[in-house]
Amino acid sequence: MKIKEVIVVEGKNDTNVLKSYVDCDTIETHGISIDKEVIEQIRIAKQTRGVIIFTDPDYPGEYIRNTINEAIDGCKNAYIEKKKARTSKKVGVEHASKEDILESLQHLFTYDKNAQETLSREDFLSLGLNGGKDSAAKREKIASVLHLGKPNAKTLWKRLNMLQKTKEDVEHLLKEERKSV
Question: Whole-angstrom Cα distance, residue 23 to residue 19?
């Protein structure tokens, strides 16, 4: 499988694992403190080939993802669930199976700072996605179905809006979940 876009990862282990599964080029951030040169390298790659941000499903990975998305509009994002990318002691893209990595790369969405809000904060709350005893489980299911990692409430609300999901879309996802239980 050949990937046209440049994939942004955190380090060389991520690069090595990805290159063992797909034909791709990567840019490594070398951790949480992304310097201006790396941001500029990503910006150029975005303009010429496109960029997929594929960072670890942990706090540093989310910080890196947010930093890049804020600096460079229109990047594609791939997420992998923490439970699919961990060993007993570590979490990271490099620990995921080939199948899980390939699935993550097939479910991309583009970050757009200017996307119209399709799901109000009030609708989000009325759906029980924050503040209830089962809110975390509901968020986890929606995030899993949509391949959005495991975001907290605020981040899930932002990502649902980036995907242009409406209250009705989310209600449908929640109803489907109840049918499968």
Answer: 6
Pick from 82, 98, 113: which residue ends a domain? Answer: 113
Please check whether residues 80 and 6 belong to one and the same domain: yes
Q: What is the pTM of this model?
A: 0.80
State which residues form the domain around 64.
1-113
Do residues 155 and 143 lie in contact, with contact meaning Cβ atoms separated by under 8 Å? no
**What's the pLDDT tens digit per position in 107-141?**
998 877 777 899 999 999 999 999 989 999 999 98
Instruction: State whether residue 29 is helix, strand or coil.
Output: coil
Contacts of 37 (CB under 8 A, 6+ apart): none
CATH of the domain at 57: 3.40.1360.10
Are 73 and 54 found together in one domain?
yes
Alpha carbons 33 and 31: distance in angstroms, whole number: 6
Amino acid letter, 82: K
How many residues in total does the chain contain? 181
